[in-house]
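User: Structure please.
Assistant: Input sequence and predicted structure:
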Amino acid sequence: MTTTSEHRPAGGHPRPARVPYLASGPDDLVRRFVREGDHLHAAATMSRPNALLNAVCRAFAGSRSLTVSTTAVHSSAHALALSGAVHKVITGFVGDTFPSPRPNRLYRELAEGRPFEVEMWSLLSYTQRLMAAALGQPFATTGSMLAETDLRHGKEGTLHLVPHPEDPGRTVTLLSPLRPRFTLFHGVCADRRGNVVACPPMGEGAWSAYAATEGVLASVEAVVDDEVVAAMPDRVVIPAARVLGLCAAPLGAHPQSLRTAGLAGVDGYLDDYDFLTGIVAACKDPRTAADWYETWVGGVASHTEYLERLGEERRASLVFPRGVPAPRDVPRSPEPVGEPTEQEQLIVLGARTVADLVRERGYDTLLAGIGTSHMSAWLAARMLAADGVQVQVAAELGLQSMDPEPGDVFLFSQRHAERSQMLSGIAETLGGAVAANPRCLGVLSAAEIDPAANINTTLLPDGRWITGTGGANDIASSVDCVVIAVASARRYVPRLTHHTSPGLHVRDVVSQFGRFTRADAGAGFALRSWLPPVPGRGRSGQDLPTSPEAALRDLTGWTAPADGSGISPHLTDEKAVTTEELSLLRTMDPEGFYR
């Protein structure tokens, strides 16, 4: 229920001016408005409205009635699965992102509809559906190649191929609008009228606030006087007219981060890496996962109690007051000695390939997908900068022209946001900086890759869930790409388990023993450079192939052509990973998450 106050416009009749319901906390707000069967949208900037989602889980535990849309399900959003509150999730990623991207045991049977049904979209197409709803359009158009991949399945009523009006021989992909009933949003602050302030990077932005058929339920770090917000109208991202209810929820994005720019005297805070790794560890076993849920969500009466459980010392350690976050306090690696690990050799060879392509073809932007791919992109940018070559590094949620903080490997860290030249959103990044930019080079990872460079990041051969597409399909659909992936017969496969992203624009595939290239999209890949592999997972030095032919045979499942064309006649020897390269990489990753 909302309250009203009398407002008499000049020369007119009295009419009610809606004032949002000011709730005592997230649980009060959720119980006031949300009902079983609702479609809730959890808006994503660099974080989600996690305090509100926790309240949703408490209020509807066991009901299996809700539809939830959100860009990604990871970290504390695993409570959606553990609570049993959700029937269906519409998203682009289900798994874990920190300390590195990986599957989560909770979702092994996700493809079978357990623990909930899932509808998978690429990150840009998902955002475009929200934009279409927000703009009152009947459809969105997308250049992402959904219809050409397995992402088309289950979307018969929402994804449409129609003849191109100017060229009937081509088709256009139309997407039905995404219209939730309520959008949940967490901002920096709001006034009592309901104007919500937030800071970039904005991820999906405020589109979902306008897409919601009913309106917005907002939590903020602080509810402030009207005059405070009135002094910064340029920072209001959701107007009062869209806000049905509002509550204060300090650290309402925890365990994720929030950038505040010090607005209204509100301090920002960092991702709680210890909490995030704790969730990953807990979810490895059903019993510990249930214990985690009971400790932090189900057995917590309110957000106030949640903050008390965190403790004052932990809360204080996350805060960065109105300035640049301090560098991570982590042990620095000693001068590297001996051989690189298999992963490190892969990352260095990937970085060399990216740097070579930037020099040869003049790419001005690197869009780094999360994983070994973003580590290679970051390393390549630093190598190029040392040679006086500038290239901009971007991340899909809205970080552009990044200078990543050494020692922090998380792709979406607020430390990197503070060292970026531009902070925007998904549409500006995956759209403007990527899809509309022929000088962008995508740098991607793969769980499976076939001889045509089509990519699977969704399903394992035994049916277990991996993670999904995220923004990879959008990137692979539109710009030249490099794929960086450890070679094995289970990864370099003759046929994909799930066709997640197209290989049409993939120029190079980099393995731990060299670089595969091809002349064009219709040609086969050939090994163009060679560096003997080093011991890796499950392989000792005695098991390693000692020639390019043996590596192609033993470390890939790609069928080597009988004419030997799988190895380039121009094959060159890669130099060994240098001390300088390894030192730079370990400065970026001192804890060895990608080692």
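The longest strand covers residues 182-191.
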